[in-house]
Structures are given as C-alpha cells and as structure tokens.
Specification:
Layout lengths: L7 H16 L4 H8 L3 H9 L6 H11 L3 H11 L7
Length: 85
C-alpha cells in the first residue's frame, strides 16, 4: 500500500487540478491571484507536496471553474481498494 501523500488517488487529484487549471487558461500565478495566495502554494498543491481538504477542493473548483464531483470521481477511480487512512 502506498503512502497517502504519494498514493495513486493523490497523484490523480494533483493531475486533475493541473489539467483543470490549464483547460481554464490559467497559469499558477493567475490562480494564486484568484485565491489570494502565493504562487508557491499552488505549486505545492499541484506537485503533491501539500494535501487538499474537501473545503479547499470546493474553493479551487470555484476559482478554476470545474465540477468538484467530477474530480472526486477521478480520485475515487484511482484510489486503491485497500488504501488506509
């Protein structure tokens, strides 16, 4: 079983966030401005160095303009059946 921070579900979440940001035509700095945070925070989230909680996922979805339920479906499909907390 993989560590949570590098699990297949976590990797899928990070990639889905990057894909959504790029599809929206936003750079990391653009997203940081919308979120009122530093670009380095966006980079850490996208690289998997910082985890995202459910409330933050909703905030990211609003800022980028994606459906959080679609991202959750991607993560659910990628998460190992025996993954532990």
């Amino acid at each position: 079983m993989a560590k949570t921070i590098r699990s297949t579900g976590q990797v899928a979440l990070c990639q889905a966030l990057v894909d959504a940001r790029i599809k929206a035509g936003l750079g990391q700095e653009d997203l940081a401005v919308k979120l009122k945070c530093h670009q380095s925070l966006v980079a850490r989230i996208e690289s998997g160095q910082r985890r995202v909680d459910v409330v933050e996922l909703v905030v990211l979805a609003r800022a980028i303009g994606f459906d959080p339920f679609k991202v959750l479906a991607i993560v659910e499909a990628a998460t190992e059946p025996d993954h532990r907390i």
